Amino acid sequence: xxxxxxxxxxxxxxxxxxxxxxxxxLMARFGLPVELLGMTTRGDQILDRALxxxxxxxxxxxxxxxxxxxxxxxxxxxxLKDVPMELPEGFALAAIWEREDPRDxxxxxxxxxxDALPQGAVVGTSSLRRVVQLLxxxxxxxxxxxRGNLDTRLRxxxxxxxxxxVLAAAGLKRLGLASRIRGTFDPEVMIPAAGQGxxxxxxxxxxxxxxxxLAQTLHQPTFLACHAERAVSRSLGGSCSMPLAAHAVWEGDxxxxxxxxxxxxxxxxxxxxxxxxxxxxxxAGARALGNEAAAQLRAAGAGSYLPAA
Length: 309
Ligand SMILES: NCc1[nH]cc(CCC(=O)O)c1CC(=O)O
Description:
Blueprint: E1 5-10, H1 13-30, E2 34-39, H2 42-45, H3 51-54, H4 62-69, E3 75-79, E4 91-97, E5 104-107, E6 122-124, H5 128-137, E7 142-144, H6 150-158, E8 164-168, H7 169-174, E9 183-184, E10 199-204, H8 208-215, H9 220-235, E11 244-251, E12 254-261, E13 272-279, H10 283-299
Parallel strand pairs: 1-2, 1-3, 6-7, 6-8
Antiparallel strand pairs: 3-10, 4-10, 5-8, 5-9, 11-12, 12-13
The ligand NCc1[nH]cc(CCC(=O)O)c1CC(=O)O binds next to strand 8 and helix 7.
């Protein structure tokens, strides 16, 4: 009997759904025994402060990487948008899987969309990317922080603290909560985060056998689109405390990328935007497209939007 392949995962309902999906897919496709190792991360414990202020989304992946390092687990399944642009030494992203709906969802018990909200309405989100794009459309809105897993955020909405909240459509759909989506944002109005809706599978760089196996499972269109999106962010400094959106879509064999950057210190400052397209066939081409989008944002003045180095 082979020793089981172990997947390290956070224990939120969404993280478990994603890890179980990877487990079931690997068992069915390769006949491997696969088990889950659930763990609580620092990011799950800190609920009272914006993540951008306490160390960023990396807080969700660190404990999982420690489990890989110590050999307690072999792969870690993440929402790709929570994976830092630069992985620590010794780790690799072995695969990116097909994404769910990458759009942001407008969730409200009373209003159909952001334009229908009354003057000064309270909208819950702790994502700087969402804040700057909401304010670009509705500068009158009062944005309030909203943390916690999806169920917690929905409960806070239902308790009446907000007129509306904004969540990733992907998470709601995966958890069977699509009925809570009142409307999806046009990705040109609310550009999604790099990697939103996609799964990323991380392994130790030295685990060649597992890397080769996982390379057979990656979803090439999602993989290339997400590499382009992540290159924009990496090229601009890669911090999640930066209000940056980057989203790439395929039009035939052409990859088109949209990106927008706001100023974390002046949330109503006009956003810098760029749109670029190129025929892309490999990872290097995808990264080049993302780097070019970042270069255009720099040329448009991104330097003054970014925190001083
Ligand atoms: N930042 C938290 C997070 N990380 C991944 C998702 C779910 C969607 C996805 O896979 O991108 C969410 C929830 C949200 O943003 O509403």
